[in-house]
Amino acid sequence: MPDGRFGALAGWAQRHRWAALVLWVAVVAAITLGASAAGSAYRNDFSLPGTDSQAATDLFKQHGSDQAGDSVEIVFKDTAGIRSAEDRVEPMLAEVRQMAGVADVRSPFVDASAVSEDGTIAYASVTLDGKTEDVPKEDVARIIDTARSTATEQLQVEVGGEAARNAEDKEGPTAELAGIVAASVILVLLFGSLLAASLPLITALFAVGGAIGLIALASHVFTVADFTPPILMLVGLGVGVDYALLIFYRYRHELLAGARPAEAGRKALDSAGRTVFFAGCTVIVALLGLVALGLGSLQGIALAVAITVLMTMAASLVLLPALLALFGGRIQRHVRKQQAKATKKGTAEGDGWRAMARAVQRRPLPTLLVGVFALLALSAPALGMRLGFADSGNDPAETTSRHAYDLLAEGFGPGFNGPLIVLVKGDQEAGKTVQERLATTDGVAAASPAMPSEDGALSTVFVYPTTSPQDEGTVDLVHHLRDDVMPSLEQATGAEVLVGGATAASQDVSETLAARLPLFVAVVVGVSSLLLLLVFRSIWIPVKAAVLNLLSISAALGVITLVFQHGWFGAQPGPVEAFIPALIFAIVFGLSMDYEVFLVSRIHEEWSRTQDHSQSVREGLASTGKVITAAAAIMMFVFGAFVLGSDRMLQQFGLGLAVAILLDAVVIRCLIVPAVMQMLGKWAWWLPAPLARRLPKVSIDRPQHS
């Protein structure tokens, strides 16, 4: 039987196994050396053109206002009164004023508003010479070290602000190591052989190694956020092992069927290799759809993860066949030993999954209803999901940024940690009028005097809400100011008035992402469904896949909402990070399609051979249930390792991916899909004749002709 394109690729890799290996090692080494020499240029970009907060930032820069740069707060607490610490604090502030990255320092001893009413808590504002993402972390770290060196038993000194949060020491690669260990253990349990277990892992590590270097180089050209590397490492590890495992498992299946190692490799790539290619392309399409959301940092993450998935596909389709050619004989001997043991026991590969498939087929409707009800119940909390961004109030209790946040809230009220910066483009009299009106607005605790810019064209008013930055009351206040208060002020003063600052900007980003998300989801679901329609030539297969994939994702978002928004299991309550729904949707939808194609293509293969839909479902599940569950378990542990870290966004990302993969592999692929396929019967492969004539023929099954 002639090989298809993927079989031919496997044949080339097998014949030139050493050349393929050397080529991969050379490419990864060259990328790594190049990345080490060039370094990385990761930077965050949360700008969002067209919003009030971005317009305010642009005006700040244009008119030379100090507020163009972000700031950090050095916070002091002395129970004997802050004045008693002036001799220690002032020399330190003078030293900070001369440091790199510092534009200005305002001492609490010359600004009475920077001292709490009881005189025990005060803060010094350190204005940086740029936005947080533009100031080197080393410069901010030196400010933190210098400030905290003045602390005594009586004087507590902490440093807060977004720049301080970013500059604090991050944890080591705990999550990555935990993911590798979990993957290794599961693979050894699955195959009973250290050699067999190591091949998917080696393939994934090669792919991730190359991807990390490529992204570091790409960061010089594109905006790539500084939190991207851990995401791409764990996604690359999970997806890389997943793809290699699907191909390796089909290779093992062909060996059990009596094929020689070289033939088994070609057949595996002609079937599972096609699945991997299709699934990888789906993930990449979904990720590149994030570019349409128009947010710089999110576009960088999408590009980085898409490159990582592309590398894992290449490694699975070229490097893995070369490794199989090198070790095929030893793997074949091990598989035959396992087969002999199973024959002696009277068991066959997949017997347990066949039994489960029969149980589902006897009661398909109750199985379907129970599974869908469980997913809907988990999805329900997502209806009340509130998007936002974590701030210092969500940091671990031992960090200086969290201590500073708590001290400022204690001394000056909960809204002090998230002031709104109101910009008045007009004369100073207009600024004064705006300040007076804001000071008496409901939900405002205080409004600072209007501060003119260097050229006098702008005035800046700091507005302190009565609620904390993440409180819904603060969101309502921003809307009230923009929709009700500012229009009348603009009419009365003739000035342009904008509400900006980090708190308002976070809200703008969250609301813009939420507004654009439905279109993004519709495009990704539409493109993926079209691909499934072409591959399986069926109307119902893509409809079923789209609905079930959306259910697993919404259930994962529901769990995230319960844990992180409502504070289940001891998590700090707060909004769900604005990036999370889009990121999880893009990655999980593609990975879910991976399992969908792998399972349904095996069912379709059996259907093409037997035309018996019940047997096709049983044999499809028997052939794939074990590997889908193992692959899902690996990814669940790999992604779940994110939860071990302290970064709130990565914790939410990891939990969401782990839950979505668990539900997809166990509830959907092993229960709901067999139930639906059994109920549909031969109609599962129905395609209207007029549409069938117009659609191009694209096959994902291994060629059946002889």
Account of the 3D structure:
- By secondary structure, the chain is of the alpha+beta class.
- 65% of the residues lie in helices and 8% in strands.
- The chain is built from 22 helices and 11 strands.
- The protein has helices spanning 5-15, 17-38, 52-62, 86-97, 137-148, 162-167, 174-191, 194-218, 228-256, 261-288, 296-345, 351-362, 364-379, 400-412, 428-439, 472-493, 502-536, 540-565, 580-610, 613-640, 648-680, 689-694; strands spanning 71-78, 102-106, 121-128, 155-160, 387-388, 420-425, 444-447, 451-452, 458-465, 496-500, 576-577.
- Strands 6, 7, 8, 9 and 10 form a 5-stranded antiparallel beta sheet that branches. Strands 2-3-1-4 form a 4-stranded antiparallel beta sheet, with helices on both faces.
- The protein is elongated.
- The mean pLDDT is 83.
Descriptive key words:
single chain, 706 residues, alpha+beta, 5-stranded antiparallel beta sheet, 4-stranded antiparallel beta sheet, 65% helix
